[in-house]
Amino acid sequence: MDKKMRQHFLLIAFGVILYACLMNLEHVFHTLENVGQIFLPVISGLILSFVLNVPLNGFDKLYTKLFDKLSLKPKESLILTLSLLSTFGAILLVFVLIVTMVVPELISSIKSVVWVVQHKIPQWIALLAEHNIDTTWLNEQLTFLNFNQIDFEQILKNVLTGAGSVLNSALGVASSTINVFVTVGFTIVISIYVLLGKKTLGRQCKKLLYAHTKIDIADKICYVAGLINQTYSKFLSGQCIEAIILGFLIYLSFLLFKIPYASLIGVLTGVLSFIPYIGAFSACFIGAILVLMINPLQALISIVVYQVVQFIENQFIYPQVVGGSVGLSPLWTLVAVLIGGNLFGILGMIFFIPLTAVFYQLLREFTNRRIEQKQLGDKIKE
């Protein structure tokens, strides 16, 4: 079979397969879903290793410099193992610090909310009644908060009657929980193996690529892969720095204006700020509700202070730290967030910035190369 006949045969086969898939889309999607479930731990492990590779490289450089100063030459595997342990240790330390700061504030918040429900709401109802405002609906809702009026005997009968369905639901939840833990466990294990063997895996992928593709195509693929890795590494580093800066600014501002829950709202801001532009608004909303339970006037002040700090951060800090880290101007950073959010939601907002930076870099190089080929450099400068 000559080359032309083989191309025609492949084209016909592709058309037949495409037609069969279009006629059985439901089965195709079901099959893809099953395949995705099977490979979910592998895919999740690769994504996790890609993210953890950023701090791991930082620790790797740190330990390399340290051993050079001590005139020691340990094996690369030892440095890599120390870097991996340090990465997981740093993540655990951050988690412990967040829990240590958030849990006491959450307990205090719950206590204050309970106190408000018990003392403040009746006062507000009386105030509304004085102004001839009907509060019947509010009193009906508040009866659910009165434990003395709850029929525990009837609740017990309902629980016993539906014990079978409850047991089935509990077993379903337990099974789902076990599956989640198993998936998470395999994800972590796979990410560890990928990180420990990343140089070997990289070398094997290059061998396969250069062995089965043309050299110029393989060079372009390697260049784009390196650009993506470099851009996403800078983006994740910049995003972490930006989250710390914004959370610290909110914390200091709330302390300055003596607004309650300064540490809690600061931590929430730092965590949610990984969602560009939108996450901080969510933290502001949650913080305003918590402060409202204590003092309505302070809640208004908290919103004003938060918005001022966020405006300054969005206009001057975020574009410079995150946008500058990936080589995007503030304008294109904002455009990337808007487009990514509209197309893919929260995940699109987070990952569309480095993706746009990659396309921007490739388009700029291609454009500059075409301008040089056409010898239009002098005309562009005019």
Approximately how much helix is present in the residues?
A: over 70%
Note the total helix count: 13
- Indicate the multimeric state: single chain
Rg for CA atoms: 29 Å
Q: What is the residue-mean pLDDT, rounded to a whole number?
A: 77
Order of secondary-structure elements? HHHHHHHHHHHHH
End-to-end gap? 57 Å
> Using DSSP, what is the number of strands?
0
Secondary structure class reads: mainly alpha
The parts where pLDDT drops under 50 for at least 5 residues are 147-153
Strand content: under 5%
Description:
By secondary structure, this protein is mainly α. It is globular. The model is unreliable at 147-153 (pLDDT under 50). It is built from 13 helices and no strands.
